[in-house]
Here is the input.
Amino acid sequence: MAPRYSEIRCPMAVVAGREDRIVDPHAHAVQLHNAVAGSTLHLLAETGHMPQHARPDAVMAAIERVERAMTGTSAHAEA
Here is the structure.
Protein backbone atom coordinates (compact mmCIF):
# COMPACT_ATOMS: atom_id res chain seq x y z
CA MET A 1 0.00 0.00 0.00
CA ALA A 2 2.82 2.43 0.76
CA PRO A 3 3.48 3.17 -2.93
CA ARG A 4 -0.09 4.47 -3.19
CA TYR A 5 -0.15 6.61 -0.02
CA SER A 6 0.37 9.78 -2.07
CA GLU A 7 -2.94 9.09 -3.87
CA ILE A 8 -4.93 9.63 -0.66
CA ARG A 9 -6.89 12.85 -0.99
CA CYS A 10 -8.99 12.95 2.16
CA PRO A 11 -8.17 14.72 5.43
CA MET A 12 -6.18 12.46 7.71
CA ALA A 13 -4.85 12.38 11.24
CA VAL A 14 -2.04 9.85 11.64
CA VAL A 15 -1.93 8.79 15.30
CA ALA A 16 0.71 6.47 16.75
CA GLY A 17 2.37 5.72 20.06
CA ARG A 18 6.01 6.73 20.37
CA GLU A 19 6.74 3.64 22.45
CA ASP A 20 5.09 1.17 20.06
CA ARG A 21 7.20 -2.01 20.24
CA ILE A 22 5.19 -3.84 17.57
CA VAL A 23 5.23 -1.33 14.71
CA ASP A 24 7.99 1.28 14.45
CA PRO A 25 6.12 4.59 14.33
CA HIS A 26 8.97 6.27 12.49
CA ALA A 27 9.01 3.63 9.78
CA HIS A 28 5.24 3.62 9.31
CA ALA A 29 3.30 6.55 10.80
CA VAL A 30 5.89 9.14 9.82
CA GLN A 31 6.17 7.65 6.33
CA LEU A 32 2.39 7.76 5.90
CA HIS A 33 2.22 11.34 7.16
CA ASN A 34 5.01 12.45 4.82
CA ALA A 35 3.30 10.85 1.83
CA VAL A 36 -0.22 12.21 2.41
CA ALA A 37 -0.49 15.90 1.64
CA GLY A 38 -2.25 17.84 4.37
CA SER A 39 -2.19 15.04 6.94
CA THR A 40 -1.40 15.74 10.57
CA LEU A 41 0.93 13.58 12.65
CA HIS A 42 0.37 12.85 16.33
CA LEU A 43 3.11 10.75 17.97
CA LEU A 44 1.87 10.22 21.51
CA ALA A 45 4.44 10.09 24.30
CA GLU A 46 4.33 7.21 26.77
CA THR A 47 1.97 5.33 24.44
CA GLY A 48 2.43 1.95 22.83
CA HIS A 49 0.77 0.01 20.02
CA MET A 50 -2.87 0.80 20.80
CA PRO A 51 -3.26 4.55 21.33
CA GLN A 52 -7.02 4.29 20.85
CA HIS A 53 -7.15 2.29 24.10
CA ALA A 54 -4.31 3.91 26.03
CA ARG A 55 -5.07 7.51 25.05
CA PRO A 56 -8.62 7.73 23.72
CA ASP A 57 -8.74 11.42 24.66
CA ALA A 58 -5.78 12.24 22.41
CA VAL A 59 -7.07 10.10 19.55
CA MET A 60 -10.51 11.72 19.78
CA ALA A 61 -8.93 15.19 19.85
CA ALA A 62 -6.98 14.40 16.67
CA ILE A 63 -10.15 13.19 14.94
CA GLU A 64 -12.07 16.26 16.08
CA ARG A 65 -9.36 18.57 14.70
CA VAL A 66 -9.77 16.94 11.28
CA GLU A 67 -13.54 17.21 11.56
CA ARG A 68 -13.37 20.90 12.51
CA ALA A 69 -11.01 21.60 9.61
CA MET A 70 -13.51 19.99 7.25
CA THR A 71 -16.78 21.33 8.63
CA GLY A 72 -15.97 24.19 10.96
CA THR A 73 -17.54 22.32 13.86
CA SER A 74 -17.31 19.09 15.84
CA ALA A 75 -20.24 16.71 16.35
CA HIS A 76 -18.68 15.53 19.62
CA ALA A 77 -18.52 19.09 20.97
CA GLU A 78 -22.21 19.55 20.18
CA ALA A 79 -23.29 16.38 22.00
Summary: The first strand starts at residue 13 and ends at 17.
